[in-house]
Amino acid sequence: MTATTTIPGLFPAPTKHAKLIAWVQQTAAMTQPDRVHWCDGSDAEWNALTAELVAGGTLKPLNPVKRPNSFFAASDPRDVARVESRTFICSEKEEDAGPTNNWLDPTEMRADLQDLFKGCMKGRTMYVVPFSMGPLGSKISQLGVEITDSAYVAISMRVMTRMGAGALKEIGDDGFFVPALHSVGMPLADGQADVAWPCNEIKYIVHFPESREIWSYGSGYGGNALLGKKCFALRIASVMARDEGWFAEHMLILKLTSPEGVVRYIAAAFPSACGKTNMAMLQPTLPGWKAETIGDDICWMRFGDDGRLYAINPEAGFFGVAPGTGIETNKNAVDSLHSNSVFTNVALTADGDVWWEGLTDTPPEGLTDWKGRPWSPESGEPAAHPNARFTVPAAQCPVIAPEWEDPKGVPISAILFGGRRASAVPLVTEAFDWAHGVFLASNVASEGTAAAENKIGELRRDPFAMLPFCGYNMGDYFDHWLKMGAKADASKLPRIYFVNWFRKDEKGKFVWPGYGENSRVLKWIFGRLEGEAAATDTAIGRVPSQESLDLSGLSLTQAQLDLLLTVDAAVWQEEAALIPPAYEKFGDHMPKALWAQYEALVSRLAQA
Ligand code: GTP
Ligand code: SPV
Ligand code: MN
Questions:
Q1: Contact at 8 Å (CB) between 34 and 59?
Q2: d(CA 295, CA 297)
Q3: CA atoms in the 13 A half-sphere facing the CB of 516
Q4: Which residues, in sequence order, are CB contacts of 376 under 8 Å at separation 6+?
Q5: Does 451 sit in the ligand 2 pocket, CB within 6 Å?
């Protein structure tokens, strides 16, 4: 093994934290980088790293007049999304990972990983990236250090988290941090030229929940590589939340103000690429209503001393889906991206700017697609990859709420769950109570998207939109939700709703206009919270009575409205039949209270 004392940059370490220094030293000895760089998160560092990435061909600077300090990156075409089949929860007991996670014995996994990581950073710089999930110094924030051999990851972490010297200071001389080790898995031999997007066909995204560790190998992409995000803030944090009595969820957080000036905060969980970023930045079409963003992907919630549930967004940036993001659908996202942004797998315009399907109605002339080929509408493939993403500081969002970094968090009044459902699921359903809401959330299903390697359009069950992100047995996770609710003062709990913007007609067209028009559903929910809006009890929950939904100015036919709001008992009997096989997988871990909810649904349907 290389003597680490000779690796340039390793010493002097900018910390006295013995455990951190030892981990960095051991990792350097194992992975054998050419040099070490401790990230401080400064502008100078950003400038140096982006310049290096430009020189190496990973980044292209965008037109500095149109989009200052912004860059384009094209990934390896085999490294474009999360790899759920290669994501592992290596708890000591297989049972604790549960039937929905991949599991391997932690001792064997460690041995395999140590082999893979041996010498894997040769020829590269090893970046030590301290970061805070949540505002620096907040009691609900959590600290981590990512070691990575990717400068693209280091700069992305600076946008997505509070990264650098401030976080290192918070970790202090002996504070707790989550160690997160990442390598693209492509060591360079002496004199070997690098590629623009190094990665490896072999990929491992591994979590050791008991020791709160993350090891990621072979991918440079988003959720596989920016380890503060899904790996830490959801998979590891969900385990911490179970142990400590809080929630780590795949949710946006939205601030809604009524024309009367009443403020409500709403959290919403939809599966990947199912509308969280869009809803988080929604522009209400109803006059007088105002929506502001707190977070678009991850939400941590705890009960406050007043018995209410408070939420923070642990992230500092947005890693949002580009295709479909346009002036008509999400102007606030488009307007966030004026500078300081990284665009991955989008198309490039002739004048050095970015483009993707849905940004404008007609594509500009002279596009280059995400693979670097000249593109025209006749090319037969989209110009941007369907999971192309932008990385942008949250503070640049024109409707970011002033309190978005408040360490206390914001009190949540309603929690929405939903997915892409062409059939069966009404526009909005209110749960009868918390336990019924947990039941609805445990049965979220959605048509597959490009955010992970599943079949596009195929229905899959994705409880709580957390299927790929829960770091432990999901049966126990359901139980955690039930227990947390049972302990709380029911009158202060958020109300739970189930929404579906994706209902299609027989021609396969979306029936509901969606986007800003979703404010009509939010108005109804607001009215429910105020005790003003009417609802009709159905077998599956409470749906709006037709008059109680504000449809002024919308051109929906009666048949369309019926389709959106009717609960068809025969269709729901088929839906209900899908529940037992899904629940049985969890065996003894499945809470009895949810089986009771299932029985109650079946008997309500029999009477409907
Ligand atoms: P992740 O970042 O992967 O967790 O996804 P997300 O939930 O934030 O998804 P996002 O908001 O980026 O939405 C992805 C896709 O859903 C885009 O193609 C949007 O255009 C589409 N979408 C969002 N909201 C609506 C809506 O109300 N109606 C319809 N029809 N499509 C929508
Ligand atoms: C998702 O897939 O839900 C995302 C993108 O938000 S990633 O960070 O890659 O997980
Ligand atoms: Mn997500």
A1: no
A2: 6
A3: 17
A4: 363, 367
A5: yes
Neighbours of 6 (CB within 10 A): 7
∠253-259-261 over CA atoms, to 5°?
A: 70
The Cα–Cα gap between 342 and 358 comes to 18
Q: Quote the CA–CA distance of 463 and 441 in Å, as a whole number.
A: 6
CA–centroid distance, 579 to ligand 1, in Å, is 26
Q: How far is CA 86 from CA 101, 107, 339, 504, in A?
A: 10, 17, 34, 33
Residue 9: the pLDDT is 96
What is the DSSP code string of 364-413? PSSEE-TTS-EE-GGGSS-SS-TT-EEEEEGGG-TTB-TTTT-TT-EEEE
Whether the CB of 276 sits within 6 Å of ligand 2: no
Tokens 């990575």 found at: 148
CB count in 10 Å sphere of residue 377: 9
Could you tell me the pTM of the whole model? 0.97
CA distances from 186 to 24, 33, 505 (A): 19, 11, 48
The residues annotated as belonging to the active site are 274
Question: What does each C-alpha distance from 193 to 123, 124, 153, 197 come to in angstroms?
Answer: 10, 11, 20, 12
Residue 231 corresponds to which amino acid? C
Three-class secondary structure of residue 243 per DSSP: helix
Closest Cα to atom 4 of ligand 1: 272
What is the token pair recorded at 598? Answer: 């299932």
Q: Are strands 252-257 and 290-295 parallel, antiparallel or unpaired?
A: antiparallel
* 587: phi then psi, degrees, rounded to nearest 5: 50, -130
pLDDT lower than 50: segments of the chain: 1
Residue with tokens 């976080």: 167
Q: Give the chain's length.
A: 608
Report the C-alpha gap between 18 and 29 in whole angstroms. Answer: 16
Distances (CA, A) of 342 to 73, 312, 359: 7, 24, 16
Task: Please give the Cα distance from 330 to 308 (Å, whole number).
Answer: 31
d(CA 327, CA 110): 48
| Protein residue with least CA distance to atom 12, ligand 1 | 321
Q: Tell me whether 0.90 is exceeded by the ipTM.
A: yes
Listed residue (253, 221, 247, 215) closest to 234, CA to CA: 247
What are the pLDDT digits (tens) for 144-168? 999 999 999 999 999 999 999 999 9
CA distances from 305 to 162, 309, 310, 408 (A): 27, 9, 10, 11
CA–centroid distance, 25 to ligand 3, in Å, is 33
* Cβ partners under 8 Å of residue 404, min gap 6: 293, 294, 295, 313, 394
Pairing of strands 162-163, 125-133: antiparallel
Where is 558: in which H helix or E strand? Answer: helix 558-565
Q: Output phi, psi for 173, to 5 deg.
A: -85, -20
Q: How far apart are CA 312 and CA 302, in angstroms?
A: 9
- Amino acid identity for residue 531 in this structure: G
**Interstrand relation of 535-538 and 541-544 (parallel, antiparallel or unpaired):** antiparallel
| Per-residue H/E/C for 428-492 | EEECCCHHHHHHHHHCCEEECCCCECCCCCCEEECHHHCCCCCCCCHHHHHHHHHHHHHHCCHHH
| For the CA of 296, the nearest atom of ligand 1 | 8
